[in-house]
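Preliminary data (for renewal application), magnesium ion complex.
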Amino acid sequence: MNKKECIAIPTETVYGLAANAYSDSATSKIFKIKKRPKKNPLIVHYASLNMLEKDCYLNKNFFKLYEKLSPGPITFVLKLKKNSNISKNVTNNKKTLAIRFPKHWLTRKLLKILKYPLAAPSANISTKISPVSKEDVKDEFGKKIKFVLDGGQSKIGLESTIVSLINKPQILRLGGTQTSTINKILKNSLKFNKKNKKLTVPGQGKVHYSPEIPIRLNVNKPKQGEAFILVKKRKLSSKNFYYLSKTNNLRQAAKNLYKTLRMIKKKKFKSIAVEKISNIGFGEAINDRLIRASKY
Ligand code: TXA
Ligand code: MG
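Predicted structure:
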């Protein structure tokens, strides 16, 4: 990978649009291609603690979570070191850095040979649906990016959970690691509080993950011509019905969510109805994404 290049990479959560996190010119390409506001900082992807230590201060809570959950779908917000080489574009000049160790073997292999970490937001145009396959990335950007590393469909299918470890640990974004898993490790009772603006991340705008079609939530019966998204199997079926899981499994439903929204968009439905999805386990993250997608 060229030091100044921007390419798409597979991760277990979603595909990322990646560039050398130490380079101003490489990282500025990410913002341009994604049409991302400059004030929205990026997550930096690492494969080794040695490299991370050059950029961030690591603390006890970080080591506890890192040991059990990395590599995997969790992002840590840490204090940035003054002498770090991370480009100012990545942090928007702030003193904190969001970092993660992705699990996908191909991207780990790439990170291990590079001499720099990779800044990578999800590989979609800002506020649109995140990509979970190389086809999705091509859908988003066409010829605007030269290389997409093909790693198959993302296994988790939702972005990483973001936890701030700056002072008291705080969950900033729900995602591929459940809050209960983090609480068990930290012996804590953290909760995601979507109403507390201070605790949300800069990029979690009201509209996000949007297929650009109106979405109605908690629906029992869809209207004529509406696509209907379901988790639980029903006796009735129709060609407008899209099941997120075969067995009422919320982990599987999370994996299929973005893929299904993209498919419905391609089929040119004018609106989407979604049945009530229980707010437990991965249901919490699914509902978070659907609520934002419905603000379109
Ligand atoms: O699973 C993921 O996390 C994927 C894959 C590609 O790794 N990446 C991802 O990146 O979801 P992105 O840019 O789409 O979302 C990152 C979120 C943004 O909402 C951003 O505002 C927030 O992380 N963020 C970045 N740096 C931060 C920081 N220092 N403090 C708080 N939030 C931060
Ligand atoms: Mg994103």
